[in-house]
UniProtKB/TrEMBL annotation:
<dbReference type="InterPro" id="IPR015424">
    <property type="entry name" value="PyrdxlP-dep_Trfase"/>
</dbReference>
<feature type="domain" description="Aminotransferase class I/classII large">
    <location>
        <begin position="26"/>
        <end position="375"/>
    </location>
</feature>
<dbReference type="GO" id="GO:0030170">
    <property type="term" value="F:pyridoxal phosphate binding"/>
</dbReference>
<dbReference type="InterPro" id="IPR015422">
    <property type="entry name" value="PyrdxlP-dep_Trfase_small"/>
</dbReference>
<dbReference type="GO" id="GO:0016212">
    <property type="term" value="F:kynurenine-oxoglutarate transaminase activity"/>
</dbReference>
<keyword id="KW-0032">Aminotransferase</keyword>
<protein>
    <submittedName>
        <fullName>Aminotransferase</fullName>
    </submittedName>
</protein>
<dbReference type="Pfam" id="PF00155">
    <property type="entry name" value="Aminotran_1_2"/>
</dbReference>
<comment type="similarity">
    <text>Belongs to the class-I pyridoxal-phosphate-dependent aminotransferase family.</text>
</comment>
<keyword id="KW-0663">Pyridoxal phosphate</keyword>
<dbReference type="InterPro" id="IPR004839">
    <property type="entry name" value="Aminotransferase_I/II_large"/>
</dbReference>
<dbReference type="InterPro" id="IPR015421">
    <property type="entry name" value="PyrdxlP-dep_Trfase_major"/>
</dbReference>
<dbReference type="InterPro" id="IPR051326">
    <property type="entry name" value="Kynurenine-oxoglutarate_AT"/>
</dbReference>
<keyword id="KW-0808">Transferase</keyword>
<dbReference type="GO" id="GO:0005737">
    <property type="term" value="C:cytoplasm"/>
</dbReference>
Amino acid sequence: MHPLYQQMPTSIFEKMSLAAMEHGAVNLGQGFPDFGWPQAILDVAAEALLSQSNQYAPSRGLPVLRQAVADHYNRHHSLVLLPEQVCITAGATEAIAAAIFATIAPGDEVILFTPAYDAYAPLIRRAGGVVREVALQSPAWRIDGAVLREAITGKTRAIVINNPHNPTGRLFDRSELEAVAAVAVDHDLIVISDEVWEHLLLDGQQFTAMASLPAMADRTIKCGSAGKIFSLTGWKVGWLVASPALATLAARAHQFLTFSSPPNLQEAVAFGLNEGDDWLGPMRQSFAAARDRMAGALRAIGYCVQDSAATYFHCVDLEASGIRADDRTFADRAVVEAGIAVVPLSAFAEIDPPRGFIRLCFAKRDSTIDAGVAALERAARLFR
C-alpha cells in the first residue's frame, strides 16, 4: 500500500460537506454556487446527449471545444493560441495533475504559495517531487519576490501559482506576477498557473494571464475550468493550455488519468465559450451583490471579514472577530452546535498554516446567505 495515501486525511472540503449533510447545517464551506448557471448551456448539453455521440471523445478533447478555448483566450488575453495547444481534462484539478506529472521528476522541488489549494501538495508528492512552501501573510496576502527568491534552490523545477487566489480572494497584481515570472526566467522554471477563477472578478478588476507576460508563453502551463466560468462545478470539464511541446507532454499524462470527458458536456461548453461574453457582466454583478450581502451582515454581528476582489470566497479573521478558538476548533464545533459548515484556512498549508482564519463561500442565494449568517451568529456565541 502506498504510504502517501495511507497517511492522507480526507479532503477538508469533503469532510465539511459530509458534516453539513450529517448535521443539517448550512454549507458555506465547499465552493460551489447555488445560482448563476446559463440555462442555454444546459439545454445544449441535454440535446447533445440525445442527438450526438456518447462514446469516447478524443483524449485531447473535441476539436470544437479546443478551438473554442483557444479563441476565448486569444480574445481575452491577446494571445495567439492554436487548438493544438489545448488539452481538455476532467476538471481543472485533473489538468493540474497532468501538468505536475508531466513536468516533475523524483527529487524536483516545487514552490507553492500558501495558503494553497489542498490538491497541489499531494499531487507533487505523488510525482516524487518535494514541496517548498512560501507563506503569504495576512491581511495583504501579497507575493514577495525577495522571499520567493530565497526559496529557490538548485533542485527547484516549478512554481505553482493560483490567480485569482483561493482561499483568500486576492487578485495578484501585475507587479506580483512579474516577480514570479522574473524568478522563473532566471532559474529556467516551469510555472503551473491555476487560473480557474479568471472570470470571477469583482469591482471592475482586470486579470493578467501568466502566459501573457514577456518570456512566459513557453514556460507556462495554464489550467482553466468551465465549471468555474459557468457555475457548473459538477460538470468537471477543464483544460490546460501551453506551448505545443508542453501541451503534448501534459496530454500524455492526461491520457492515463481520465483519457477523456463527456462529449455532450464538451459540446455545451464550446457553445458557451463561442456565444460571446455578454454574460460576464451580469454574472459578476450577481456574485458581487452576494459578496456584499454576506460581508455586510457578518460585519454587523462583529465578524472581521477581509475584502475579496475575486473568486467567490471570503476570509474571516477569527481573532480580530473576538473568537477565542483556532480555526479547526471553530469549524468542528460550529457545524455540530451552530449548524454552519465553514473551511479552516489551516487546511491550506502544512509548514506554517494560518490558524486563525476561516473561508466562506458567498456564491449563494440570499436565503442561503441569510441562514448562514444567522448560524454564524450562533457560532460566535460559542466562543466569545
